[in-house]
Structure to design on (407 residues):
């Protein structure tokens, strides 16, 4: 008999076939009575919150007891943790004062006391709560640290701050094996992030409806080139404006920069101002955020209606926005870095680029060759279907739980 809670699995079954769903259900059955706990820093903004919001209902539908908790922390802590994020992604100029270091660790103690993590598998996301494990009096379950950022070339001071906690974990997850430093002794697993194809952000929209949504914000008189990203230096929003200016000399376009302000990202407001100043009063540059009413459905529509999606990151753990756009058959031009390289096959479903000139050149090429752009978009959807859907992600977690349960 159909029940409401069958919903997601039914939809996956239609998309991928029943065999895949049965396989995942069989794996999930082994963990039916287990308790899984995810912990991270924020319920809103950025890729981690996006994934967890979607993953929890799917795991629940698979009858897994799963919970997601966030800790609260003062503004000061998020300034330190953003510094750490930047340093771990490779900003070598950053240094930490003794006061900052002790605040980071003291916050982990407080986070531990707030949450009292308990479960068979406790998954700690990202560096902010990494030291929580140090305060666990008794480690009953298996503890997993899930790193979502590109730590392939970290600032050594920042790496020292987290590396002492890594041996306390039972397993570490990185988006790419190469993001993990070679001297790590804890077992490492490579798991890529994913999107929920049925969510408000990714569900198929009728073309006219999608256009109507976009037109509430931006006229559709010229081709749209869009980047959806937090306002953050690693996402290179100023470089994107340079690309727009170069392209615009040859083909008139509109540039849309959509960026939500994440709760754990104190740099967002400052960078939004920077981006606005850099754009000046150009009426063809549209800077939008959640404060303008651009939420999941609107992001979806922009990703579907835009001719090209850019993700011109300089460092990128994964870049869910790339997968989101590929799923909508929109070709993506992305920075030739980190997790973007797992998603874009250069020249097949988009382009990987290193410079502003190269990006502008590829934008012009795709605008002049719509048939090729369409083909690339179709390849993009296949790639996501095969590798980056949430159900595949959950299956990889189940395989990891199994692995950790069999010593
Ligand atoms: N996002 C959004 N609105 C915005 C900007 C970003 O909903 O204005 C979403 C975006 O669609 C994606 C996530 O936030 O799902 C960003 O994840 P990504 O991995 O690309 O980058 P992160 O912010 O984690 O570095």
């Amino acid at each position: 008999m159909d029940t409401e809670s069958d919903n997601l699995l039914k939809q996956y079954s239609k998309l991928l076939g029943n065999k895949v769903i049965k396989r995942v259900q069989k794996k999930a059955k082994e963990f039916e009575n287990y308790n899984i706990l995810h912990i991270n820093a924020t319920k809103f903004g950025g890729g981690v919150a996006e994934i967890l919001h979607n993953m929890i209902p799917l795991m629940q539908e698979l009858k897994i007891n799963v919970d997601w908790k966030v800790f609260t922390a003062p503004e000061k802590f998020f300034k330190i943790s953003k510094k750490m994020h930047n340093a771990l992604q490779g900003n070598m100029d950053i240094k930490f004062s003794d006061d900052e270091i002790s605040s980071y660790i003291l916050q982990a103690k407080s986070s531990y006391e707030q949450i009292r993590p308990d479960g068979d598998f406790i998954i700690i996301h990202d560096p902010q709560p990494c030291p929580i494990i140090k305060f666990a009096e008794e480690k009953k379950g298996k503890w997993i640290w899930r790193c979502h950022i590109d730590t392939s070339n970290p600032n050594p001071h920042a790496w020292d701050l987290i590396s002492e906690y890594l041996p306390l974990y039972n397993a570490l997850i990185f988006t790419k094996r190469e993001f993990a430093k070679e001297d790590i002794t804890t077992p490492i697993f490579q798991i890529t992030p994913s999107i929920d194809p049925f969510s408000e952000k990714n569900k198929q929209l009728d073309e006219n409806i999608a256009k109507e949504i976009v037109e509430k914000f931006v006229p559709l008189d010229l081709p749209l080139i869009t980047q959806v990203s937090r306002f953050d230096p690693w996402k290179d929003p100023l470089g994107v404006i340079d690309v727009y200016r170069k392209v615009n000399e040859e083909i008139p376009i509109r540039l849309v920069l959509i960026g939500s302000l994440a709760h754990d990202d104190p740099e967002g407001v400052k960078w939004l101002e920077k981006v606005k100043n850099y754009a000046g009063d150009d009426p063809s540059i549209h800077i939008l955020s959640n404060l303008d009413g651009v939420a999941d459905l609107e992001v979806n529509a922009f990703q579907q209606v835009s001719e090209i999606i850019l993700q011109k990151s300089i460092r990128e753990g994964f870049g869910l926005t790339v997968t989101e756009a590929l799923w909508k058959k929109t070709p993506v031009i992305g920075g030739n870095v980190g997790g973007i390289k797992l998603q874009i096959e250069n020249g097949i479903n988009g382009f990987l680029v290193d410079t502003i000139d190269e990006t502008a050149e590829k934008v012009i090429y795709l605008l002049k060759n719509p048939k090729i752009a369409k083909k690339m978009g179709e390849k993009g959807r296949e790639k996501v279907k095969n590798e980056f859907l949430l159900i595949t992600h959950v299956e990889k977690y189940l395989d990891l739980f199994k692995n950790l349960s069999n010593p």
About this structure: Residues 98-115 form the longest helix (18 residues). Residues 304 and 328 are 6 Å apart (CA to CA). DSSP finds 15 helices and twelve strands in the chain. The chain has two domains: 3-194+389-405, 207-387.
